[in-house]
Amino acid sequence: MESTLPTNRSSGLSLRGIAGVFKLRIGVVITFTALAGLSVSGGPSLSLAQLITLTLAVLISSASAGAFNQYYEHDTDPLMSRTRNRPFATGEIQHGPVWLVVIFGLMAISVAAAWIALNAWAALFTFLGAFFYAIVYTVWLKRRTWLNIVFGGLAGSWAVLAGATAADPQVGAVPLALAFVLFLWTPPHFWSLAIAYRDDYAAAGVPMLPVVVGDQRAAKVIFGSTLLLVAASMLPLAFGRGSIYFAGAAIGGFLFIQKAWLLVKNTNRATAMTCFHASLAQLTLVLTAAIIDARF
């Protein structure tokens, strides 16, 4: 009888294959946002065991959502150069129902661990982060509307709140402001990538913003969205954040605005990828500055 276990066609999954299936790089970013939310919460310090549980719960729930995204899109991933080598798309990993058991099992374990070790609010936000990426974005919105990443981007916002409520179930103004920053950050970040891979999304029938309105108009929307994002990133200053946070938000914001303006002036794949990487730098600076400012 042929095995239905989630293995590849060789002797086993490589570490690189596992990282790819579960989108661990994205999971690390999501986990970092949760730790930033924890740092700015103002609540009591977590024990080492609680901190480890929070980190693993957010990472594993995000990883399960990433794996579901690839499982669900195994039919469209082969149509895109960026995704055609994913294990489900190539057939390296068997696409079968056992993977759904693994994916939802991991999500359930991560949410349960957050509930037991932390509290119900942290567990809820951990769940919502995975749910919005796996179901709201991937299943409900991605193939239907250009607003897909706008609402799907809430996954990062929920992670901030998961971290904040792990220490204090009553969410304060600074974590809410930081969650709002994550909500505004995701669209210009992803739309920059979508300009670089517009033909891929068009071939796969995914209505990303550049596919719907064209690269030039999308670039203008990215620039406007970046201005709004950078303005919002200053909100934590009104609630007690200090000079360290201001420096990180200002430097990161200036860099992102500059690259977004260059994208408007010369819209092509190279400037789109430069803008995409600038968005990552901006988020890293904001979150790192928030953690340092809160703790030191």
Q: Assign the structural class, choosing from mainly alpha, mainly beta, alpha/beta, alpha+beta, or little secondary structure.
A: mainly alpha
| Named CATH architecture | Orthogonal Bundle
Strand tally is: 0
Query: Helix content range of the residues, please?
Result: over 70%
Instruction: Examine the coordinates and then state which fold CATH places here, giving the name of the CATH topology.
Output: Farnesyl Diphosphate Synthase
Tell me the name of the CATH class: Mainly Alpha
Give the mean pLDDT: 92
Number of domains: 1
% residues in beta strands: under 5%
Order of helices and strands: HHHHHHHHHHHHHH
Radius of gyration, taken over Cα atoms and rounded to an integer in Å: 19 Å
Number of helices: 14
- Poorly predicted runs are 1-12
Largest sheet: none
Large-scale geometry:
flat
* CA-CA gap between termini: 60 Å
Describe the structure.
This protein has a single domain (15-295), classed as Farnesyl Diphosphate Synthase (Orthogonal Bundle), CATH 1.10.600. Helix 2 packs antiparallel against helix 3 (48-72), helix 2 (24-39) crosses helix 8 (154-167) and helix 9 runs antiparallel to helix 14 (269-295). The protein starts with 14 loop residues before the first helix and ends with a helix. Residues 1-12 have low confidence and may be disordered. The chain has 14 helices and no strands. It has 296 residues and is an all-alpha fold.
